[in-house]
Amino acid sequence: MPRIYLSDFADVVSKSGPPKATKVREIKNRPAYQPATDFYKPMRDGLVELHRTAQGKSAVTALGAPDDPKKVASYAALADGYKKWWGRKDLVWFEPSRNVYAAHGVEVVVNSSLGLHVNGVPHLLRLHLKADKLTKVRADLIGALMLSTLASTVPGATMAVLDVRNSKLFVAGNGPDGVGAMIDAELAYIASLWAKV
């Protein structure tokens, strides 16, 4: 059974025509994950550690100054965006959830990046760190998968995607009707194509 990650699935859905099939082929044939090649891993890990150890907002600044010169501008923009989103909110860490959504013989690993009580309300947050602006369609898709797979893991939690650079929070459940049907249709497409690429 093919197993892909939530970001992979969102990448496939955001494409059409031949690039869509190319993306499925890339996912199927890529080498095993190597942390050293994950551009944003230090930022994700840094935010987790910052909240897990209850450091203040000022600690985000250090995350924006990595040792790798290729990351300096990007990480600085992410740190600025995250601090702006944090604002005056009271953020308290809890362990984020992970689960699997399966349909048509394809499994999608759905995980949240951060578990935070935001002003007392539990939130499971998925971080969007890439330079491209997060579209509402992509955020709705990710949010719908989070709702269907993670809502039972933290009852009453708000599921959301945070576009870190732009300090914009997309709350799940505010998307159009039919997102679930679209998810299943896309998984049927991936399942059909998987054996052929």
Number of helices: 7
The biggest beta sheet is recorded as: 5 strands, mixed
Total strand segments:
8
Structural class: alpha/beta
Sheet with the most strands: spatial strand order: 2-5-6-7-8
Strand content: 15-25%
Order of helices and strands: EHHHHHEEEEEHEEH
Uncertain regions spanning at least 5 consecutive residues? none
Given the C-alpha coordinates, what overall shape results? globular
What would you say about this model in short?
The protein is α/β, with parallel strands linked by helices.
Structure description:
The chain is of the alpha/beta class and 197 residues long. The protein has seven helices and eight strands, in the order βαααααβββββαββα. It has one domain (3-37, 88-194). A five-stranded mixed sheet has the order 2-5-6-7-8, sandwiched between helices. A three-stranded mixed sheet has the order 1-4-3. Helix 1 packs antiparallel against helix 2 (18-29) and helix 1 (6-13) runs antiparallel to helix 6 (136-150). The protein is 42% helix and 21% strand. The chain has helices spanning 6-13, 18-29, 41-52, 60-63, 72-86, 136-150, 179-194; strands spanning 3-5, 91-94, 98-103, 106-111, 114-118, 121-128, 158-163, 168-171. Helix 6 (136-150) links the parallel strand 6 (121-128) and strand 7 (158-163).
